[in-house]
Structures are given as C-alpha cells and as structure tokens.
Amino acid sequence: MAATQDALYAALDVELSWSEKELPERERTKHVHRLHPYLGKFIPQLVEELLRRHVATGGRVLDPFAGSGTTLVQALESGMDATGIDLAAFNCLLIRVKTERWNPFTLEHDLRDALGRFERGDGEGVAATGYVAEWFAPQAAADLLRFRSLITGYECADVLRVVLARAARSARLTTHFDLDFPSLPQHGPYWCHKHKRECRPVERASHFLRRYTLDTLARLKEFSRARGPGEAVVLHGDAREIDPGSGFDAVVTSPPYPGLIDYHEQHRYAYELLGLDDLRECELGAAEGGTGRQALARYVDGVGEVLARSADTLTPGAPLLVVVNDRRELYSDVLERAGLNLIGRYRRHVNRRTGLRAGEYFEDVLVARRP
Ligand SMILES: C[S@@+](CC[C@H](N)C(=O)[O-])C[C@H]1O[C@@H](n2cnc3c(N)ncnc32)[C@H](O)[C@@H]1O
Asked: Which of 96, 138, 140, 165 has its C-alpha lying 20 to 30 A from 205's C-alpha?
C-alpha cells in the first residue's frame, strides 16, 4: 500500500464497522473469548479481518500486548501460528488455557472429577484471611478456598484455576454495577442502578463454580473444533525485554491506552487467590500513573520501544497492525520513536453496546512498516 494522504485521513472502513445486528454479542464472545471477563479487549472479528487482509494462511503472528489472547486465538482459528507477550501473569494464564491443545478425555475427566469432589464436600477447609476474608461472604470464601485446595494434581489444573478466578470475580462482595474496579466491599442490600431494584451481594460461590466449570468445558471443546493446525507460544514479562524470536509475518496488537485501565488490578482476586506474580510497576500506560506530561512521555517511549523490538522480529516488508484510539495524538511520536512509517490507516466505528456512554466512538488501525 502506498503512503498517501488517505493513509493519514482515512475514510470510515465500513467492513470493519459492524452494527450490533451484524455482530451480536454471541458472535463477539464465541468459544474461548468468553472464558473470563477482561476489560480492554478488541473484538475477534476485527483480528480475523486484519489477518485475512494482511497474512497468508500458515503465517506467524506476534502480539506483544497479548491481553486476553484475542490475536492468538484468532490466528489459530485462521490456520496460523501465534506468539503473545503480556506483563500480567493472570493474562498469560488465561491465554495459555485458551490456546493449549488439551487432550479432550483428560479435560473432560479433570473438570468433572474436580467438580464432583467439590460437590461431595471434599477438599480442605482453610480459614479465610486478608483480601479473601474482606472481599467475600464467609460461605463464598469457604467455597472458593475448598475448590482451590482440590486443583493441584490435575493435568488440567490451569483450566480449573481460570474457573476459580471467574467464580471469585462473580462472588465478590460488590454491587452489580461496579464489577470492574470496586473500591469497597458491599455488605448489605443496596439499590441497584443496573437492575432497577434492591439487590443483595452474593453469599456463596458453589453455583458459580458449577456453572463455569461446565461452561469452560463446552467452550474449550468448541474451540478445539474451530482451530487449525497452528500452535501458540505465550511469554510472560515486559515486552521491552522479552525476545519472542524472529520470522513473524505480522504484528497485530492493541497497546494499553494511557491512563485508562490498571491491568493487574482488574483481576486482583485472581492474584490473591492464585498467588500470581505481580509486575504492575512495569505496566505501560497504567491508570494509576495518570496522564500528566511525564506519564505521556514515558508511555510514548515505552510503547515505541515495544513496537521497535516487534518490528525487528518481522520478515522484510511485513506489517505492524496497531489498534488505537489516538485521542491524545501520541502515535506519530510513538511510530517515530519506533522507527516506523505509517503506510495506511483503517478507521472503524465502534458500536457502543450500552446507551450509557453517548457520542460517536472511532478507533484506528495503524498499518506501519520499517522504511
Ligand atoms: C489493550 S490490552 C490488550 C488487549 C488484547 N488486544 C485483547 O484483545 O485481549 C494491553 C495489554 O498490555 C499489557 N501490558 C502493559 N504493559 C506491558 C508491558 N510492559 N509488557 C507487556 N505487556 C504489557 C497489559 O497487561 C494488557 O494486557
């Protein structure tokens, strides 16, 4: 694609601007894309279309900000190999669970066996302390800790860890309208803005553990039928330091936006229950860092460095496809810092599912390349 004025002021790409009717929630959350909530992911169909436009079947794709693994899952579905890097340990666990080629018999056995033992009352009753005692009702904490005690020893232990985290998220003492970043535990009944009635915080976790064990099993089986022959590699750490190898045919990624989301904090319950490594001080663009001048300069430098390193891994002429909402107009500096040329830009209209946030919302896919 030639560098033209169009590249800089792209018209709306209608093929990438789906309406709710064209792309209902069921499709956007197909198979493993709904294994666990994750704030800040892009939709699978966007990745699917970008891969169709830019990468041949059998190619290799890199996502240095892999998040919940949308790029990796879609690359596998499109018959490619994929490598993802993420700083957040829980995200890496989630991606591994989504993309591993599980033995179907072991998977079925392990999940049903663990659930059966849990429902028969097996497992250790441990006293809740700290975060768990604070954020869960006594019965919910007891359910989660007993389920956790049953996990080790199974070949599919990581799948059970993701089930445990998902149940913990649903069972926290939060209001229904503040599930992403609750600030204080909710102990009594409250007026629920979401359901327009009085609601009560959750008291137990056993029903979530059952529901999510069975749902996870069904979703993993569905994906095992949808995926191609490719494999995924998941690397945990800072993308400014990790070497993912070479010979990639494209980078498809969405960097964190500055000052918007704390990626570790959104899964705090998982870090607490699973004892995962917390590397939040290396998060690029963390909400906690704010959007002051220095924070934005660090952001440009950090994301620029990651994109430069990613470009080094590509075969000659291969593109970097970077999904951004560049409201702060930082990306000409980011690309310059990375030594990349902008050769194209797709602009898409993002369909807001809720009526809560008014106004039009657009997102750009920057197509960049080494000069
Ligand atoms: C916008 S999200 C990516 C979402 C992904 N496209 C998806 O669909 O799930 C950005 C990700 O960058 C990760 N991240 C932030 N700083 C990082 C760093 N220094 N190295 C690697 N990953 C980092 C965050 O943990 C987060 O998961």
From this structure: 96
And the tokens for 163? 């089930």
Q: What is the DSSP letter of 266?
A: G
Q: What is the pLDDT of residues 141-158, one digit of tens each?
A: 999 999 999 999 999 999
How far is 147 from 58, CA to CA, in rounded Å?
A: 40
pLDDT in tens, 65-104: 999 999 999 999 999 999 999 999 999 999 999 999 999 9
Report percent pLDDT > 70 for the chain.
95
Dist. CA 255 → ligand 1 center (Å): 6
Nearest CA to ligand 1 atom 1: 256
Question: For ligand 1, is residue 174 a contact (CB within 6 Å)?
Answer: no
Type of residue at 161: R
CA distance 105 to 109: 6
- What is residue 81's three-state secondary structure? strand
* Residue burial 60-78, b: 16+ Cβ < 10 Å; e: rest: bbbbbbbbbbbbbbbbbbb
**Residue 236 Cα to ligand 1 middle (Å):** 11
Mutate to test the pocket of ligand 1, among 65, 91, 298, 300 (most ligand atoms within 8 A of CB): 65
DSSP β-bridge partners for residue 365: 323, 346
Tokens of 232: 């995924």
- CA 2 to ligand 1 center in whole angstroms: 30
Residues 239/306, Cβ–Cβ less than 8 Å: yes
Which residue type is seen at 158?
D
- Quote the pLDDT of residue 353: 55
**Ligand 1 in contact with 282 (CB < 6 A)?**
yes
Pocket of ligand 1 contains residue 68 by CB under 6 Å: yes
Q: Are 69 and 84 in contact (CB under 8 A)?
A: yes
Residue 29 alpha carbon to ligand 1 centre in Å: 19
pTM of the model: 0.94
> What pLDDT score does 362 carry?
87
Region 172-201: mean pLDDT is 90
